[in-house]
Design a protein that fits this description.
Layout: E1 2-3, E2 6-7, E3 42-45, E4 49-57, E5 61-65, E6 70-73, E7 80-82
Antiparallel strand pairs: 1-2, 3-4, 3-7, 4-5, 5-6
C-alpha cells in the first residue's frame, strides 16, 4: 500500500495458537479444580457452620449433617471448605 510515495506495512494476524506468557498481566486465571468430598469428611459452611458429610450423590452434590438437620450442598462449593 502506498501513501504519498511511502510504503506502509500491513500487519497480519497469525493463524496459529497464541503462546501463553507466564509474566503477562493479561493472562486468564486458571479455574481451580472442583473440590471432591467423601463420606465422613469434616466441612465448614459459610451459612450453616461445622458439619460432616453423610452422603455423596452422583459425585455432584453432598449431604452434610450440620447438627440441626442434614442439608444438601450443590456445586460450586465456594462456601464449603474441607477441614
Amino acid at each position: 500500500m502506498r501513501v504519498r510515495g511511502r510504503m506502509l506495512a500491513v500487519m497480519t494476524r497469525s493463524d496459529g495458537p497464541r503462546r501463553p506468557l507466564s509474566a503477562s498481566p493479561f493472562r486468564r486465571p486458571t479455574a481451580p479444580a472442583p473440590e471432591q468430598f467423601a463420606v465422613g469428611d469434616r466441612v465448614t459452611h459459610d451459612k450453616h457452620g461445622l458439619g460432616r458429610v453423610v452422603a455423596v450423590e452422583d459425585d455432584l452434590s453432598v449431604i452434610v449433617d450440620f447438627g440441626a438437620a442434614p442439608q444438601r450442598v450443590s456445586p460450586p462449593f465456594s462456601s464449603t471448605t474441607r477441614l
